[in-house]
Structures are given as structure tokens and as C-alpha cells.
Amino acid sequence: MDSLPKIDGVRLARLDELDRIALVAAAGFFHSPVFHFQRPHYDAFPEDTVASYQAEYEAAMLDPNSIVLVAEQIPDKNETNRVYKALQRLSPSKSQTSSDGKVIVGVASISLPPHSRRSGVFQPKGTSTYSTQSETLQQRDQCIKGGELYSEATAPAKAKYLTGQMRLTTLAVHPAYWKHGHGTRLTNWCTRLADLDRVPIGVSAAKMGVKVFTKAGFQEEVRVQIEGYELPDESRDSFACNEKEPANVTSIELWIGVRCPQKRRRNLSCNLWRTWNCFKAEE
Fold first, then answer.
1. 3-class SS at 150?
2. Tens digits of per-residue pLDDT, 72-87?
3. By Cβ atoms counted within 10 A, which residue in 123, 238, 252, 255 is the most buried?
């Protein structure tokens, strides 16, 4: 099997790092409109937000068809000041560092394509403490209506363009460590793996991530508009909204792109590459 990509500051995640990974994910994703669309009650229930990311990345680490990566650097002692106030209450005064004095500042996850020869080789050793907690998530920060609207709007496009592909499923960088190239390095690790395996890789992203992905070679397939919604009456109290001004969650846009492998058929468009690849598979 080909060796894995090697990029400075990027490595596979470990199960004992889920606390830090969840905090980084919450801090980074907070700046995405998708976060606010799905988690309108984040300010009232930050512990539920963190718990849901712990469960999400635990599941990805234990999934034989997924990969979780982290990016590291020397910690910024003032990093807590760069996260939203509710999350500050859960952030430790001092982050635990690795043996070389670095902390996790970014996280990404990948879904492997069906029947990948790499399936099952990325699972970290050790045990997780979140399995029981994952089964009892309260998810009070989320709105069921928002989740349903998001799924309904995006499911057809994801099925059309991302089914069967390697997929960069999540990418988040702690805001205290923006503009250090961590998002680019994590993305490049993923695209290099796709190139090694000679498979396309897809992504669905909010507007803030489009620049990183287009720079990495992803080509736009479609933009999906997701209409906003009014919060249900039963959820108003936890959102602490003004009764005179109904709480509305604004509409958002999701960008879907696909990047074809770069080591073969550089002169082919993505659609032509898919056609050529299917033809070769049938020979």
C-alpha cells in the first residue's frame, strides 16, 4: 500500500484527544452559518454543543471507513479570548500540550469511498470515554426544524455529486490560529490521499471554506440554497428571544465541489475523467 501523505503539523487524531478536538470544532464551526442554522440555542447550552462534537468525532475515529486528522502548533496563551462567550465558560485556563509543547488547533475528517483498500487501517488504538455519553446526547442547542430543513434541501445534491466519492466531511480551525495555513494543510493532506488512491474527493462547505477548497483544486458542482425559518414557539424560552420580534434563522447557502485526482489525465475535466474512469473499469 502507498505511504500516507506527510505534511508538517498534521497527523492522525487519538481518542484521548476528544476533549480538545470538540472545543476546537465548536470554536471554529461557530463562524459558519451552518452552525447557527442548526444550533440556534448554542448560547444557552454550550455543553451540548461540545458533547455533540465529542460524539461525532468519536464515531468517525471508530468508523473503519473514516479518518480524523488534527493540526498542531505552539499554543497561544490568549486563545480563550478568541472564542464565543458561552464556549469560554467550558474552555480550560491552560490547554494540555503534547510532548513537544504543541496543542491541537485544527481538525478534519474524511470518509473513504466504498470498498477502499484503506478501510480499517486508520482506527486509533486505545479506548474512548464517550460511548455512553454519546447515547444520551440532549442536543438542546439544536433545533429539530433546522436540521430537517437542512437535510431536505441538501440531500439531493449530496446524493448526486458526493455519493461514492472520497469526501472531506469536516474542517475546522480554532479562530486563535487562523491565517497560519492549518486549513490548507489539512485539506492538502486529504487531497494527496485522494491522489495516491487515484479517486475524486468531494466536499460540501459554507461560504467561508470555498476559498480554501477552490485553491486546493475543487471545482464547483452546485450551490444549494437553504431557506431560513422561524423558531418554533416551544423553543423560544431557551433562545431568550424578544417576544415582540420573532426569532428567525436566516437562509444559508451550501457549496458543493469535487476535485479529480491530479496525477493522471490532467487535461480532462472532472466529468470527462469520471466517464473515462468508468470506461476503464468496464474493460
1. helix
2. 999 999 999 999 999 9
3. 252
- Rounded-to-integer distance, Cα 28 and Cα 183, Å: 11
Residue corresponding to grid cell 440555542: 41
Helix-, strand-, coil-residue percentages of the chain, each rounded to 5: 40, 20, 40
For residue 270, give the nearest of 220, 195, 205 by alpha carbon.
220
8-state DSSP, 78: T
**E strand or H helix that includes residue 145:** helix 144-161
C-alpha to C-alpha distances, 12 to 17, 66, 190, 198, 204, nearest whole angstrom? 11, 11, 12, 21, 22
User: Per-residue pLDDT tens for 187-210?
Assistant: 999 999 999 999 999 999 999 899
Amino acid at 264: R
Which domains, from first to last, does the chain contain? 10-119+141-282 (3.40.630.30)
Whole-number Å distance between alpha carbons of 59 and 54: 9
Nine-digit cell at 1?
A: 500500500
Determine how many CB atoms are found less than 10 A away from the CB of residue 88: 13
Set of cell numbers at residue 126: 486505545
The total of other beta-carbon atoms located within 10 Å of residue 73's CB is 17
Q: Is the CB of residue 118 less than 8 Å from the CB of residue 89?
A: no
How far is the CA of 92 from the CAs of 96, 128, 137, 151, 260, in angstroms? 9, 20, 22, 34, 41
Tens-place pLDDT, residues 235-264: 655 555 444 444 789 999 999 999 999 865
Percentage of the chain modeled with pLDDT above 70: 82
